[in-house]
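User: Hey, quick favor. My workstation is busy. Could you predict this chain's structure for me?
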Amino acid sequence: MNPLLQFPFVGLGPQLCLGAGLLAALAAGMSQRLPRGFLRAVVLFVLASSTLLAGLTVPGAYGPLIRIDGLGVSWQFLFYLGAVPYALSLAEDEVPAALALGSVLGMALLAVSGNLLMLFIGLEFMSLPAYLLVSRGGGRSGQAEEAAVKYFFAGGLAGALFLLGMALYYAATKSLALVGAAGTMAEAGVALMGVAALFKLGAVPLHFWLPDAYEAASPELAGLMSTSMKSAGLLLLLRLLALTPSSEFAACLPALGALTAVVGAISALRQERLQRLLAYSSIAHAGNLVLGAGAWAAQGALPAGTAPLFFYLASYAFMSNGAFAFLRASGIGSRAELKGYALRAPLKAALFAALLLALAGIPPTAGFLAKLLIFWEAVKAGLWAPVAGAGLAALLSLGYYLGLIRDMYFEESRAPSKTPIEVSAAFSGVVWACAVPAAVLGLAPWLVGGLAGWLAP
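Assistant: No problem, here it is.
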């Protein structure tokens, strides 16, 4: 191997780019005369450059802390893709730009971690800026500080459990390397660390923070949290499951995933605030991901087996970001305001309807193929009861997804007319850019086979 490629920092091109962008955003705050849109351009340039550098990264081990493989590289694309809509919303304030880049940097570090200690560093680096971003509000609830405090303390508990689990794992194996282990103490350590991953995903019963945080955040920040951060949480869970794929913790995940999906779907049925409804919808989708992770572990935890999960997350990045971008572009916050919207803005209503059909999993959208792949993997693993539970949740979800479409097209508006809000054309562009792939990716099942070959070592 070329000696240059053995140098640890050569494999960290995306991370170095994100770090440089973070410093540039902070330095920009010292300038009194920034060109309009400068910070937005910096963040978008950094995300694009990091994506390119991730594709050029050479897989391998770069020291004891860094390990780059197909799984870590591919997941970085999900992180950067999910952050683009939030980057488009940035105004001339260096703090959100720096915090957003810091959070994405934590995700990128998590993706290349070859050691439990590095996983913890990436997890905390991702989480701490998110608490501050939520505290800045921007949503409609007016309780940003309360939601951020709840988010912070719940995240602190998850971090403490991760450290405790890491200590148990080290006591059992005398190593923090990501190498498979056996034994009761090692499995207990992995289970405790897995709780932190389930917290980031919003799995039941660790979902209590999520609705308040999503509602308090701006729609575009909620989109980032529901896509990029959820992808990072799932990657963390997959890394941990690979250590003890036949443990009791792994065996419990399918049932937990089905329960999470049902709880999220039932809770969403009762919501009137759209941002909170989408938060519970995100919990339901997290349940499908946890089910898929459990099925993956039950089949041997092979790298190629993560292809359905990757496709699900990529599809969800379009569906969720597009739905939250619609809320931002339309200025609509409740179901009452949504009634009759198709008469006022037929094109935007059609795009939102396409996103809702994809989220519901209606053929031939990306959501249908994504759910079908997860359910099929669970069936292959013999997980019939969890599949039935997740299928019930998908059926329940039709009640609110199709209900929103009914509100737009078949209900008369009774809400007082509102003064149109001024929004950037970028948000309308995001809705378009998300709705089209969400509607047509379900027609390309051959992508999954290509992903499996790419993710395999």
